[in-house]
Design goal:
Elements (H helix, E strand, L loop, with lengths): L3 H23 L2 H17 L7 H21 L1 H4 L13 H11 L3 H12 L4 H8 L3 H18 L6 H7 L6
Helix pairs in contact: 1-2, 1-3, 1-6, 2-3, 6-8, 7-8
Keywords: Sigma factor, Transcription, Transcription regulation
Family: Belongs to the sigma-70 factor family. ECF subfamily.
Protein name: Sigma-70 family RNA polymerase sigma factor
Length: 169
């Protein structure tokens, strides 16, 4: 089990990316909060020694995706009515783009979020999702094409990258 200080630090540093990924994946705030708690509970109970912060972040994002999959497979998830809920975004311009991302199939949403929002390379995304790098690149290409058709050609590749740059500061 982890120390309280370790957990507080992990939540402070990686809570936002974990929650954002869960929100993009589940498209529901309540479910995203449940996945967030599950991811950090698994971290608390896990004994993995992390090489650095990037290793910890990648581990947390992988656990988040697995928890989302567990949630979708659960009997509870299959027997409830879907709520229509807007996902909060920083600007009006970004909301249109991320609304289009939300309409993508799950496998494309994951790679788009991890690439543009979290700043991972195709190889790193492949490691997180357990997919081949070539598969990730193909999914990125297909996701971009779907986004382009969904947005009516209003966004070109540079525009998409401009609006969803990773939050690295």
């Amino acid at each position: 089990m982890r120390t309280q200080m370790f957990m507080e630090c992990a939540v402070k540093r990686f809570g936002t990316p974990v929650y954002q990924l869960a929100l993009v994946h589940t498209q529901n705030r309540a479910d995203a909060e449940d996945v967030f708690q599950e991811a950090f509970l698994r971290l608390y109970l896990d004994a993995t020694l992390f090489a650095d912060d990037e290793h910890l972040k990648a581990w947390l994002l992988q656990v988040t995706i697995n928890a989302c999959h567990d949630l979708h497979r659960s009997a509870w998830s299959r027997r409830r009515a879907a709520l229509s809920e807007d996902i909060p975004f920083e600007t009006e311009e970004d909301s249109g783009l991320w609304a289009a991302v939300a309409k993508l199939p799950q496998k494309y949403r994951d790679v788009i979020h991890l690439y543009y929002q979290e700043g991972y390379s195709a190889e790193e995304i492949g490691n997180i999702l357990g997919r081949k790098t070539a598969t990730v690149r193909t999914q990125m290409c297909r996701a971009r094409e779907l986004l382009k058709s969904e947005l009516g050609g209003n966004y070109n590749e540079e525009r998409v990258q401009e609006n969803v740059q990773p939050d690295h500061a």
